Each structure stands twice: as structure tokens, then as C-alpha cells.
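Researcher: I'd like a structural prediction for the single chain below. Treat it as a standalone chain; there are no partners to consider.
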Amino acid sequence: MKSALLCVALCVVGASCLSLNKVPADTKWVDLTSEPKDLGDIWTDCSSAGDLMKIDSVTITPDPPTKGAALTINATVDFEKQVTSGSIKVDLKWGFITVVNKELDLCSTAKDAGVSCPINAGSLTFHISEALPSAAPSGHYTGNIKATNQDSNELVCVDIDFHLT
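Model: Treating it as a single chain, here is the predicted structure.
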């Protein structure tokens, strides 16, 4: 269940549902204007050209994540259309063992983060910080997060690949 907290933090990035807080001075910004869209050491944008949400920038601190430390994610995304409902499909594996395989309601996740649906078209900058459990097993984690809107159209796709120490 503790690894689900990490997944929820990562889901919120895919859902783009939090408000902006001050960005720490020691974070690094990733330029996403060239292909492939590498979002740092642990994220890759696997969205297709027709997806309805574009990731403009992502900052992850620390990168890579560390057990017992807060994982802070700052991102700016652009929604092409208003989102009134949707879902977030999360798959996360530790090695070959599936630790999370679930579908979350996008608006419930947004509400838990303090944002109400509908999410309007346009730019959205958000911040999330979640403590990673000290008891989380060290090792290689891989996964995928896909968010869809009310019409089942894909908003965004993010692949995750990191080593937790």
C-alpha cells in the first residue's frame, strides 16, 4: 500500500490537478522542445501527437527518488480541450512484480488534490510533494500512466523507469 502513495503522486502529474507552489531553487528544468521528450531520468512522455494534453515542463526533486525523502514534482501542461471527467490508468512494477494495477477516477483524484472538474482548456501549472515510505523496497521500478477524458480520448501517457535507493 505504501508504494501506492508513490503511484498517486505520479498519477497526479498525469492528471495535472494541483495548484502551483514556489519551485525550489535547486531544481532542474527539462527542455521538452526537441524529440524524444525525455522528462528527466525517470519519466518519458509516451503520448501520441493527437493526445489532448501536452507536457510543457517537468521538474522532479530528487531525481532519482530516494526512500524516506519527499518526492516533489512541478509541471506545466496544456489542455487542448476542457476535461469534465475521465480516468487514470496506473500500472507500476517493482522488477517483474506488479505492485499497482488500477484505474482511478480523474475528477476524484483532482478533488483530493483540491481541484474541481471541469478542468478548463489552457495552461496549468501544478506542484505535488509526497513523502516516499522508508519501507519501500529498493530496486528497479517501471510503469505507465495514461489519462483519458470524458470521451475516452487519451489526454496523456507517461512511462516511468527509475531505481529507488
